[in-house]
Known about the structure:
This protein is of the alpha/beta class.
Amino acid sequence: MSTETAAAAARTAASAPADWAQARSDAYAAGLAAALPVAGRPLVETDGLTLAEPLTTRTDLPAFPTSSVDGWAVRGSGPWRVVGRVLAGGTPPPLTEDGTTVEIATGAMVPDGATAVLRIEESDRTPDGLVSGTPRSTPEWRRPGEEAYAGEELLPAGTPVDPAVIGLAASCGHDTLRVRRAPRAALLVFGDELLTAGPPGAGRVRDALGPALPSWLRRYGCEITPADVVGPVADTLPAHVSALRTALARADLVCTTGGTMHGPVDHLHPALAELGAEYVVNTVAVRPGFPMLLARLTGPDGRVRFVAGLPGNPQSAIVALVSLVAPLLAGLQGRPMPALPHATLAEPVPGRGDYTHLALVRLDRAAGSAHPVRHVGSAMLRGLAGADGFAVIAPGTTGEPGARVPVVPLPLLPGERAS
């Protein structure tokens, strides 16, 4: 396909910018339809992956009555004659006679026939060696099924696996979990004007996205290595097509930076046309970052891959990341559509006419408020470095102080939970 023909095809595919919320929903649906394969993995290899099946218990939790204190498992009224000792890991014989007791350790199995557990610090010994004391009225042991009953669903499919989930799975008796593997990502940096080292100057700017985006993608659960980051890719159509074809051979998702418009050196749309890509989203009515895109291709193996075209301006690229890439990756991993928390605007935020405005904010989580930050031009990163996310100002509105608005959070490390 010639450059002119490919460019014409790309322009024909273009349409009015998609509504931001709808674009986000379409990206998620596309990912979910192409959800990644499921495999059983040992517990120690599942951190950061996603449950493909509900987590259920293999036994009651606890599986047997378990002493919650060090003390005496007694039967009947005291004082009690000591007839044995029970440590964690053993199976004690039953207490069959009133007035008898066994010494018991925290975590040990309570013997059948016990009517109470007396704390060691609340007990005494009589001169003839009997145990005396008054057991508390509340039981001092955990009963079978107190935490969960056998077969009970504890977590649904789609739950991200973190250390707490791994520990819970182990306590349920699981050695492996059925999980979806992590998405494999690649990054192509477009732009002959970019420097990869040293300070900017002489008409050239430093590439800020090549070093930063892999870390953002890892926080969304992707696997990406330094070898998966390529660029700057030469500003020619053949170079773009070749770089995309190579990256798509090994990645589920290829992110690109720059080239999402239709200028003389913007070759992404013609390259996608040459590769036979289908647009999921082609431009979004959001500011900053509207010339973003998400395209879908089917490889020779029949597996679907995606290309996310991020604008070249750094903040705009992150807007595209949170708008299209985050929901896409949630779908690929079989996770729920990311829900947006809300916060109260502490200061006014302007609207952007018919476009959704994603405005960088710092959150005061104790107060539940969002504070706009400075230095928020689409080419700036200073404001982003001090922000927690983007306040969503709907089209045709402005953000008035006191208004409750959705907030798109910036991604956390795998396993982290927002405070």
